[in-house]
Write a structure and sequence with these properties.
InterPro entries: Pilin-like (IPR045584), PilS_N (IPR014911). It holds the Pfam family PilS. This is Pilus assembly protein PilX. The chain is of the alpha+beta class. It contains 4 helices and 8 strands. It has a single domain, classed as TcpA-like pilin (2-Layer Sandwich), CATH 3.30.1690.10.
Length: about 190
């Protein structure tokens, strides 16, 4: 006498399954795990893009100040840059001395952080001031512009420095929510 098995046996993809049914699709837990992994990947990508955008803004702000310094130098006459206190922004705008991607409204220049940039004659020299910078931008711009040499750098209401500003000095001085940098050239 032959006995019949009590458990159903069947073949599925080459393996013997006894009393088990084949699972179709993914479980809710598997779907949630994949969604969590996808969220982490997307979050990391967004954080990387935001960090890159911040670095780009800092770099462009430094480039703008450097361009304004170089183009203001072209305005120099034998007697300097006009009377002390003269606003040189209108002359920079008229001579195409403002970077093309900088915000210009009338005779006003605005930096990437919303601050109004001024370029003012000191008589034989001039001062470029860029206010409204967050700490990270203040540090980056102070370092990059002051490293060119021949410029006096003042951060917020601190002492003016004729030497390149290093990271430690800039970090100690750029402590406000919005910081101001002033770069003065003597010739």
């Amino acid at each position: 006498m032959k006995m019949k098995p009590t458990l159903a046996a069947r073949r599925s993809r080459g393996s013997l399954l006894i009393g088990a049914s084949r699972q179709q699709g993914a479980t809710v837990l598997e779907i949630m795990a994949w969604m969590a992994i996808a969220a982490l990947i997307i979050g990391g990508a967004i954080a990387g893009i935001a960090s890159g955008w911040s670095s780009y803004k800092e770099s462009k702000e430094g480039d703008h100040v450097t361009s304004l310094i170089a183009n203001t130098k072209k305005l120099q006459a034998v007697s300097g840059y006009g009377a002390s206190g003269t606003n040189l922004v209108p002359s920079l705008i008229a001579t195409n001395g403002v970077p093309g991607d900088m915000t210009v409204s009338g005779n006003t220049l605005t930096n990437r952080y919303g601050g109004t940039i001024t370029v003012v004659s000191t008589g034989l020299g001039y001062t470029v001031t860029t206010p409204g910078l967050p700490a990270n931008a203040c540090i980056a711009v102070a370092k990059s512009v002051s490293s060119a040499g021949g410029v006096t750098t003042k951060i917020n209401s601190g002492s003016a420095s004729t030497t390149p500003v290093d990271t430690v000095t800039a970090t100690a001085a750029c402590t406000s929510a919005t910081n101001s940098l002033a770069f003065t050239l003597a010739n």
